[in-house]
Structure formats: structure tokens, C-alpha cells
Amino acid sequence: MKLLSPSCLAGLIFLLSTQIALADCLPNSLYLTRHAEKQDEKGNRDPNLSEQGQARALRIANMFEHININYLFSTPYHRTKQTLTPLSQSKNLAITEYDPREQDAFITQLKNNYCGQTLVIAGHSNTVPDMLQDLGIHFNVSIGKYRFKYQPSIILSEHEFGQMFFIRFDNDTPVLEILNSDS
């Protein structure tokens, strides 16, 4: 049996400890929201925000008036970028685009590259619930004594826009608070 030399063993221990440290470097908090109300344009897969959506985008910016934000993320669609534009302008922050089809890689990036930061992310009704689960938010649903084997996520209908999902980490455990941008 061949043993590792002391220098190889030390290097391996260093690499492993670095990887563990990176995995433990979580953001301070994340705010996830679905884009605001969009214009109803038949056949347009990338509509702008409606007047109601623009008003919501302003309310979202006002929600963060006294909160320090480090990064803004949005899918490349007009409605998600426009949802964060007033916040981007008020905080003088650029909006970084992410690909919603590469969500696993994006979640890994969020967990490992933004240690101690506060992030705001705009997504869609079909991406925000999955992101919540990928960040470790689980919903325990049971009926009587029966507990579902596969736990559901939050479901956002096509007509729900007001939820802002605030996630903070308490000893690496995600804690969810649901805020509202309706008023």
C-alpha cells in the first residue's frame, strides 16, 4: 500500500478545506420576486411591464429604501429587468442577467460567490418556486397523519405578483419570510 507524501497530504487537506469554506460562504440574505404585471400582448413572449407593473416596480424600490443591497439579478426578459429598474436606479446598481434555463448553476453561484452580501433576484412564476427549493426552503405538507413523500413548493399563478420572498441564513439554515409589494 502506497501512502501519500506529507506535502501531498498537506495539499489535499488545503484543497478540501478551501472547498468546504467556499460552500459555507452564503449570502447574508436574498430577496426573490416574480416580475411585476406585464402588458397583455398576444404572441409577444417578451412584453414590457404594464402601468400597474411599473407602479409595482416603484413600490419594490421603495421597499428597499433603508436596506443595503449589493447585487441585482434578473432574467434577460424586459419584464424582469423593468421590475428591478427603479431599484437599480435608486441604489445605483447594475442589473446582472442570469439564464433561467441554467438555474442549478445560478443557485450554486449565489451560494458560493456572494458571501455576506444582500441580493435581489427577479424571476418568473415557474422559476421562483424552484429557486426557493434549491436554496433549501422546504414546505412540510400533511393531511392528518399522512405526510407527503414529495413536498410541494409554493405555486405562483399567472395572476400573482405581490410576493417578495425574503431568505436569510441562520447557521446555514434558510429562513423564509414572505413580504408583500401590494401597498
Sum up the structure in keywords:
5 helices, Rossmann fold, two-stranded antiparallel sheet, alpha/beta, 183 residues, globular
What helical percentage do the residues reach? Answer: 25-40%
* CATH C-level class: Alpha Beta
The CATH topology annotation reads as Rossmann fold
Number of strands: 8
Textual characterization of the structure:
The structure is a single chain. The chain has 183 residues and is an alpha/beta fold. It has one domain (27-180): 3-Layer(aba) Sandwich (Rossmann fold), CATH 3.40.50. 34% of the residues lie in helices and 21% in strands. The protein has a 6-stranded mixed sheet with strand order 3-2-4-1-7-8, with helices on one face. The longest helix has 18 residues, at 6-23. The protein is globular, with a radius of gyration of 20 Å. The N and C termini lie far apart (69 Å). InterPro entries: His_Pase_superF_clade-1 (IPR013078), His_PPase_superfam (IPR029033). Keywords: Signal. It holds the Pfam family His_Phos_1. This is Histidine phosphatase family protein. Residues 1-23 form the signal peptide.
